[in-house]
Amino acid sequence: MTPFDAKPLLATLTELPGVYRMIDAGGTVLYVGKAKNLRKRVASYFRDRHPSPRIALMVAQVAAVETTVTRSEGEALLLENNLIKRLAPRYNILFRDDKSYPYIVLTHDRYQRLGFFRGATDRRADYFGPFPSSQAVRESIHLLQKMFRLRTCENAVFNNRSRPCLLYQINRCSGPCVDLVAPERYAEDVEMATMFLQGRQQDVIGRLSAAMDQAAGKLAFEQAAICRDQIQSLRQVQEKQYVESGRGGDVDVVVAIEEAGTLCVNLAMVRGGRHLGDRPQFPRNSADSSPHEALGAFLAQHYAVHPMPSRVLVNLPPGDDELADWLGETAGRPVKVAQPRLTVQRIWVEMAEQNARLAIGARHSALCRQGDRLQALCEVLDLDVEDGKEARIECFDISHTQGEATVAACVVYQGSGMRKADYRRFNIEGIQAGDDCAAIRQAVLRRYAKLLTTDGAVPTLILIDGGRGQVGSALSALEELALADLPLLGVAKGEARKPGRETLIFADGREPLQLPSEHPALHLIQEVRDEAHRFAVSGHRARRGKTAQSSRLEEIGGIGPKRRKGLISRFGGLQGIADAGVDQLTAVPGISRELAEKIYAALH
Length: 604
Known about the structure:
Elements: H1 7-12, E1 18-23, E2 29-35, H2 38-43, H3 53-60, E3 64-69, H4 73-87, E4 102-107, E5 114-118, E6 125-128, H5 134-148, H6 155-158, H7 166-169, H8 183-197, H9 201-217, H10 221-240, E7 251-259, E8 262-271, E9 274-281, H11 291-303, E10 311-314, H12 323-331, E11 336-338, H13 343-381, E12 392-401, E13 404-414, E14 417-418, E15 424-427, H14 436-448, E16 461-465, H15 468-480, E17 488-492, E18 503-506, H16 520-554, H17 561-571, H18 574-579, H19 582-586, H20 593-602
Parallel strand pairs: 7-10, 10-11, 12-16, 16-17
Antiparallel strand pairs: 1-2, 1-3, 4-5, 4-6, 7-8, 8-9, 12-13, 13-14, 13-15, 17-18
Helix pairs in contact: 4-12, 5-10, 8-9, 9-10, 11-12, 13-16, 14-15
């Protein structure tokens, strides 16, 4: 290959900010980068010496360079992130794209609702977070319910209660739905919950102590006891919170660790002065990359799309010296990216590093276990896997309720785990109700018909959750597609459907095989089969729920799409509509008293 002559390109490049793309002779994008000064940054790649063998290897393959000028550095960061996601260049360090992080939400209703939220925030509610995981959110909500007894029910339920729910009985809600708490008292609880989420625990304890003393002075001992219990709960939280900043604040701790040839970037979140947990990530395309490079790539990709605190603590200087400026430009305010100085900050970083090492150890253990399982499966079934390619297992299952709302699911296992992006569901139509064999045949036909016209991934093994009938139907579908040479295996449930007693049914006529319950190959088959079952059942439930919610209303004369939508929005679903009285039904726009009586009679 003729070396790329960069001189004519560099002579025409601007010194404005923008994004550049390194492209090989086949037109494939090798690398996407951002630059404050496009000319200087691109020129740095075409020097005699390169900072790493990885960069030198990439530059040797460059046949063209394309650039895009942007109006600002922040815009360049966003464009770079979007291109990396879309193109997945070979020489960019890639991190998993987490669509959104969860939040705690406090709505602006008269009696504010405490809840779990994931998605785009707006001004119609107060949001606290983000949190590293849904479990961290739910644990925090549980604490807030215990301490401040705020409601968590949706408005459709809240507006139609006639008596308090179980949460009131177990002291996790103060019963605002039936006016068991004064609005002023509830507002005070909301204010203290907000202070707690902002990290002002000592202020909350001070207010509760004053309220307890005031109640005791008025001989309102029951109210004083409630304040005492809240104070005790808060102190227990502080004792369990082994890392406490002593003051509120939102900080992200990002560390990059390399151990045993594996790079891990761990994100720990501190919100309101409380350490909420970690989220370790393992980048792709990171061979020969340093922890500094991985850290810089994560910061750029993550904060281009996620909220940014005012302070980010790191264990290493990022590979990009100008990264803090880029992030500040994107956030519209100064962002401090620095290594820890204070004792508490060092503790946070050390904890994040330790958790990253534990995540690497767990990953190595899981990969070894999955590798052993896959090797055992290939040996038992005599499967051939080409050198350099990963084994791919696809598994089908059917779910329905007495033949209604039949859904087929196909899940994919490849490499070292499940490939959820490749999962597919099929709504099965045009078969006799309850005919699982026909459903399997339809699903297999629809799944693999594309292999005849496209270069789709060919499975190493097809699993069918079922016995001889289902396997025969799947084989018939493959024969129709001229794909009968694909390995096909049925997994028939054993006696009493007990795990470990499954029988493997071969499509090629071999005698059925029953592996020992401790066999690693059987464990892999069970894992994939169980995931297919879960995916099929969840799809069936969603389809059945949608049908059940609308079908009975559709049978009532005078209920069209607009009125049906209004009823469901007001009462939350069919059960809420059935629980409503005639007077409540008439409050929905478009529902006359005559129609309300008709609806009530149809649902009772």
